[in-house]
Amino acid sequence: MTTKKKLIAGNWKMNGSLAANEALLKALLAGVGAPGCEVAVCVPAPYLAQVQSLVAGSPIALGAQDLSAQAQGAFTGEQSAAMLKDFGVRYAIVGHSERRQYHGETDEAVAAKTAIALANGITPIVCVGETLAEREAGRTEEVVKRQLAAVIHVNGHCISEIVVAYEPVWAIGTGKTATPAQAQAVHAVLRAQLHHAASEHAAGIRILYGGSMNAANAAELLAEADIDGGLIGGASLKAPDFLQIIAAAR
Ligand code: PEP
Asked: Which catalytic residues are annotated (predicted)?
């Protein structure tokens, strides 16, 4: 039996402005109280300093949406783990399907980003998930296992420090959610794989579900045995919805 707290992490993606961020965070801070779970917001890089100061001393942790696999140097446009640490970043999303799809991120790049996050004391939220075509071809298990295996291969027993997010690509931003049973089935596969790699630590590794999780469906998804929280896109931009998801994660 594990005592780990669930994690509800918002992924703002490329949304926000100074004014909108302030309004959203003020509403979240007014409503969040003492949450029964851990809470984070993963914000666009230009707003790290703003959000760091707005959430200081609150139960809301700061997260980034990506980081460089390199430590420093001639990598125009990238942000290093050490730079993120300078702004108090606690979590970094790694290998989001939008990064894999639009920026050609490979399993190996995701594994390297996971390693550099861990080396800098940032908890990587490692995303895995199948496309609709892969699901329909019966390849879901093969795909998510391959994606996670690359991370395990490079990070070894350190993977006990990661967070995994199962995000079926067909459910992201589409309004189509995996059913609790569909999600739990994949989470159980991932848990078994983690168990193989990290034995007794596997039960303590949080596996989040992401893909159109919202105020209406969060409670039933979060009730599943191996769903340890959520990675929330669209619904994290609306304070009442995000607060309801946080409340469902007890
Ligand atoms: C995401 O971007 O990680 C995500 C799950 O988005 P949405 O909740 O909008 O489907």
From this structure: 96 (electrophile), 167 (proton acceptor)
Q: Does residue 96 carry a catalytic annotation?
A: yes
The pLDDT score that the predictor gives to residue 1 is: 41
- Would you state the torsion angle of the CA atoms of residues 213, 218, 220, 226, taken in this order, to the nearest 10 degrees? 80
In CATH, what number does 7-54+78-248 get?
A: 3.20.20.70
Domain boundaries, the chain: 7-54+78-248
Is residue 130 part of the annotated active site? The answer reads no
Q: Quick one: average pLDDT of 130-142? A: 97
Catalytic residue chosen out of the listed positions 38, 96, 105, 134: 96
Ligand-binding site membership of 53 (annotated): no
Task: Say what the pTM is.
Answer: 0.97
Phi-psi region of 24 (alpha: psi -120 to 50; beta: other; left: phi over 0): alpha
- Could you identify the residue written with the tokens 């949304």? 15
